[in-house]
Amino acid sequence: MIKQLLNLNRTEDVDCTVEIVNKFESFEAHVRFNDGTTVNPGDEVLVHGKPIEVPYGEHQTFDRKATIKRAGPIERLWTRMTGDFEFMELCEFSFSEERL
User: Fold this and answer.
1) What is the extent of the structural domain holding 39?
2) What is the average pLDDT across 61-80?
């Protein structure tokens, strides 16, 4: 039961498509799992293969293999509880001393 709660070393290998857009209007990177697999809070994804470089102004797709390391129930709960705080680290706030 403890091993099930910790969910040690539960991984899946799946085929995926990596889509990279490197244009003035948009800079994007997306990974789509070809079999429709989804990732959940706390899961980790490792895409295999050599590093991808897309020249400026281009949009390319690549077929790769990926390994998904599934989070256990405790890790999933922790990720959901702390996710909002980590999101706030991405926000940038600015205060000025200017008075009207």
Assistant:
1) 13-90
2) 90
